[in-house]
Amino acid sequence: MTATIKESVRGTLRQESESVGNIFEKLDMGAVEQLVEMLCSLEGRVVTAGCGTSGAAAKKIAHTLNCVDCPAVFISPADAVHGGMGTVCAGDVAILLSKGGETPEITQLVPGLKKRGAKIVAVTENENSELARESDLLLKIHVASEPDRFNMLATSSTLTVIAVMDAIAICVMDRNGFTRETFAVIHPGGAVGRRLLDR
């Protein structure tokens, strides 16, 4: 491995780890606590949505919530406006991800989600965005910069969003009395399942 590659990898990993490590001091803990309470008292299920890299993060968040017995589903923003909105019910919590908060495919979901009776949680770095203004709860997650030379590739920011939502999922897991037995029922497959089922 050349020194240039080594230093590039080191620099990226350092910046990403710093972004995650520094986010706690920037978080609005009131918003975090409110989101945890919403998820712990969920009457329906969680619906996540995002486009591009935010969409990949939204899928991961939905999967993690399912793993801790908090029912969640990812909906494609494109499909949602072509009938997919029918999956949304009163009592649902919609977690919408958009770094800039102005993604048209995401903001266009808000009116329909509200009419269906869902609460809107905006996860964005832009507190003045349309998504933030139209949400019931804003979870602002902002990192200083991305590690690429254009400061454009959603890497550190996406990793930090996922890390914060992981922390929230674990709070829900702990507060809802999630047990090893429940975990084994939900996740019987793979190495995790073998560990859970191996008494």
From TrEMBL:
Record GO terms (molecular function): carbohydrate derivative binding
InterPro entries cross-referenced by the UniProt entry: SIS_dom (IPR001347), SIS_dom_sf (IPR046348), SIS_Kpsf (IPR035474)
PANTHER family per record: SUGAR ISOMERASE, KPSF/GUTQ (AFU_ORTHOLOGUE AFUA_6G08860), SUGAR ISOMERASE, KPSF_GUTQ (AFU_ORTHOLOGUE AFUA_6G08860)
Source superkingdom: Bacteria
Organism: Christensenella minuta
Domain SIS: 35-178
The protein, known as: SIS domain protein
A Pfam cross-reference name: SIS
UniProt-listed SUPFAM superfamilies: SIS domain (SSF53697)
One record GO biological process: carbohydrate derivative metabolic process
